[in-house]
Amino acid sequence: MLRKRYLNLHFEIVAMSTTGDKILDTALSKIGEKSLFTKELENALERNEVDLVVHSLKDLPTLLPPGFTIGAICKRENPHDAVVFHPKNYGKTLNSLPEKSVVGTSSLRRAAQLKRRFPQLEFRDIRGNLNTRLKKLDEKEDFSAIILAAAGLRRMGWENRIGQILNPEDCLYAVGQGALAVEVRARDQEILDMVSALNDGETVLCCIAERAFMRHLEGGCSVPVAVNTMLKDSQLYLTGAVYSLDGSDSLKDTMQTSINYSQQNEEGSSDDAQYVGITAKNIPPHAQEAAETLGVELASLLLSKGAKHILSVARQLNDAR
């Protein structure tokens, strides 16, 4: 995308592995989730070995290390979760799988919601990258299906493996899911200006609301927090929920706010104000502020209804597992 915009610049891609890529036999929620997929890349950024790093936004903590910022969030891929079925179950849905069928997922968020929605099924941990998990599904009889992010499958060119897309009634998605974030050094104005061209306004505002919601809840990989956002007719809608590990206890609500925003005809921000770790220079600051306030207010509403208790119990139970 940058090469198309800046024909006179040379961009070198440096491939890197992270701790999260290497530890494939332990649930993510058990291995100290902060910076699991980001630390090695941020170290290279700090040492000036690279000028920008690309992450899945859902891997980035809502509090970034000092000196870093998200300089761009690209247009979001489908943020929903997808079901990939064992070859013997082609054509089925989760609802039509035989009772006691085993479904694999490495996500507490997915497991909590799906246990609640499909109590007739069993849910078990499955770890590994996409190739590994698909291989485990196809070559063994351990799982009838597995749950993965639709965005990952589409980016890898494996959209044909998607047997079912889970709608918000079945499963809300993770904060930032489906969006790519470009992290840069906060003081590097030249790089910040360059990558800001990649910002997709709607995606940025939705993700600011989601990240503000999670930060105010103090959520993370070790607790089931889920969202669904939509920007329509100048209204930003945010649905947020928290769940107990088994899905039996939950709180869910929706709020909205007016967003007067047009990427085409409004000037962006001249300063470097950050909203939940994001510096979107070409997005009007008042729109970003409204999105952040929406996330905080929805989190405050759920906390007032008892979300803190649900999350603290979930965290304790997960730590004890």
From TrEMBL:
Belongs to the HMBS family. This is Porphobilinogen deaminase. Residues 5-192 form the Porphobilinogen deaminase N-terminal domain. Residues 205-269 form the Porphobilinogen deaminase C-terminal domain. Monomer. Its cofactor is dipyrromethane. The gene is HMBS. Pathway: Porphyrin-containing compound metabolism; protoporphyrin-IX biosynthesis; coproporphyrinogen-III from 5-aminolevulinate: step 2/4. PANTHER family: PORPHOBILINOGEN DEAMINASE. GO terms for cellular component: cytosol.
